[in-house]
Amino acid sequence: MSSSSAAQAAKPPMRDALVAAAFQLFLERGYEQTTVDDIVALAGVGRRSFFRYFPSKEDVVFPDHERCLADMTAFLATSAADAEPVRRVCDAARLVLGMYAENPTFSVQRYRLTKQVPGLRAYELSVVWRYERALAEYLRRRFAGRPDGTLRADVVAAAVVAAHNNALRSWLRSDGRGDAGAEVDHALGYVQATFDQPVRVSPSGQAGDEQPDDVVVLVTRRATPLWRVVQEFEALAGRT
To answer: How far is CA 35 from CA 39, 58, 192, in A?
Structure first.
């Protein structure tokens, strides 16, 4: 292989080169002071090349979220019919963690930048909302037929996102030190402990968590005062 061919092969893909150029300028000049023209000039490409990969300057800050969202959606879509739904969405959230953990330096830089720029914080919130909707849509399908199915799906999805983000931000604040996976597992453990209950099917075929009604039989004398009957019933019911 010629030296020119080797140099060409060593170049990062154009998309990665644009991201690297953008963050170099963001760190040197600041986000607001950096333009798309500045980024493409440093990367050595034209504006058309930039917009082929990124619809806006904000998108270059979050280059992998579209891919991760697509991976999460596919992961949920291929779930087995008997997969425990809460555990499944917790596993889906771990895909997002993997995206951050595969490049800690970049993830920490992005976290710091996002904290400084209100527009990027708003953009990040919109991304998080899309992840939460993907989880909720899967759970709504799994909880369909339950009286509280939609509510339960939305609450669980919000809890998963909140637990994941709490642990993720703790890791990012530590500059990416420590075991991000262990922190997220610990946080998601709270969600599973609260919501990870098997869905039971009633004889009518409706899914739900409801237990069959208990039947309590109390035998007492006809002359027993009513207040004593109530007292004995409450004591008996408390032991069932």
So the answer is: 7, 11, 44
